[in-house]
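[09:14] KT: can someone run the structure on this one? pasting the chain below
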Amino acid sequence: MKNLGFGKLKIGGKNPCVIVAEIGVDHMGDMNKAKKMIEAAKDCGADVAKFQIHLPDVEMAGNHKALKFHGGSLGEVFKKSHLTPEQHKELKEYCEKAGIQYLCTPFCPTAVDLLNDIVGVDGFKTGSGEITNLPQHRKLAKISAKTGKPVFISTGMCTLEEVADTMSVYKEEGSSKNLALMVCTSEYPLEKYDDIALGLIPKFQKMFGVWAGYSDHSKDNRIACAAVAMGAKIVEKHLTLAYGEGGCDDSVALTPLMFKELVEGVRKVESAMGFEKIVRLEEQKVRNWAFHSVVTNRRIKKGQRITLRNTRPARPGVGIPSKFLDKKYSNALLGRVVRRDLPKNHVLQWEDLV
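[09:31] RB: done, structure tokens below
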């Protein structure tokens, strides 16, 4: 699979996992707060600050104000958190100055156009609720085919067949290699660990030939770290400046301190995911006393030969390795003559032998 280019970031292969701080609409329409959240995301070590753009009269039908979600009334949240495309463009520019990548989720095809034409985004993220909105994905697929902009697709609350159906749209439009699938469980908060299914990360990568990530709605950072160990190339987590400040995603968000711990945990997991089996520098110090050598179990006089009777395996491991007392290697040792008198409990060296 090819690496995805997203702004200055590279996703996939041996590149570091891209960590997304999901700000969403937690700024509640306050541009100053939105900018503080961008700064907090950067300070935490996140690579991406992600927002949402909502056009309720386009993306919703009927009395959407009466609908409820985990953050309260949809109508009230949409009204309080609304930002214009021009404001999103300002936030994108603020992200660039802060040294963090901007990302935004559209919830209707019209919002896709606004983000692409006015805001000038470098890529797109779709929510799980859009997984079967094929007209929107068709539009994204065409933009991606034309521009190479990546699309990160969340896959919560849907079937494997629905994921495949959406993937087929991108394949038809020639942009199926510009995607990453985000494993997600749409529970707010996610408290049933049996519902997480991190095994989908390698399954998605093998089944669809795209990089996979994990969008986390749990209340801790352990699962995100485990996702990286399972091969996630992107991790997304909600960020809040502080609980109880009027944000709508507190139930699934981490404070800056907690988010920083998540980033540190992810980076430690990445460092631990090596494949090379060698003796490490610090291991050598332990190996020197923990491994076994060939040791004399009695006094051996000059000119006598080494036998199984006058030697034994014992620590430390700084002499002839004890494997030379086994028949697999013993031809190289047994019967050799010692060149000087050796005391009992002497750690035998090759230079002790003729």
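[09:33] KT: thanks! The two ends are 58 Å apart (CA to CA).
[09:34] RB: yep, looked fine to me
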